[in-house]
Design brief:
InterPro entries: DUF1830 (IPR014964). By secondary structure, this protein is mainly β. The protein is about 10% helix and about 35% strand. The protein is built from 2 helices and 8 strands. A hairpin with a 7-residue loop joins strand 2 and strand 3.
Length: about 130
């Protein structure tokens, strides 16, 4: 589940589970600064997925690392990063929903050919003989 180092303030009632993916080749810092009495800042490496809980009104700031500095490159409302979690009602009504995460295809299968792919090498009109 989500890694919570700094729990949400007790006055925050509505929280959502969010996911952000660093699709760049640079290190990023994800920060939420618009929630009073709460500190959230994480380093997100290239290709890494960050899963976290946040208040519905939170905004995730993405700071992209440059040489000896970081530039604010994006502000994303956390409600746009929300993961759709099945409710307990949906889980009771369907066994498929309870294990749907484990059955998603993560990678496509690799196409392989079984026929012989060895061909003689031709160099400037000459054919090699083995």
């Amino acid at each position: 589940m989500a890694q919570i180092l700094d729990p949400l303030p007790p006055e925050q009632s509505g929280k959502i589970l969010c996911c952000y993916v660093n699709a760049t080749s640079k290190i990023q810092v994800a920060r939420i600064s618009n929630i009073p009495n709460w500190y959230f800042e994480r380093v997100v490496f290239p290709g890494q997925r960050l899963v976290f809980e946040a208040p519905v009104e939170a905004q995730l700031e993405i700071h992209t690392g440059m040489m000896a500095s970081a530039i604010l490159s994006d502000k994303i409302p956390c409600d746009r990063l929300a993961l759709n979690e099945p409710s307990s009602y949906e889980l009771e009504g369907s066994e498929k929903a309870s294990d749907s995460i484990n059955k998603k295809t993560i990678a496509q299968s690799i196409n392989t050919r079984t026929e012989d792919t060895t061909k003689p090498l031709t160099i400037a009109g000459f054919v090699s003989v083995d």
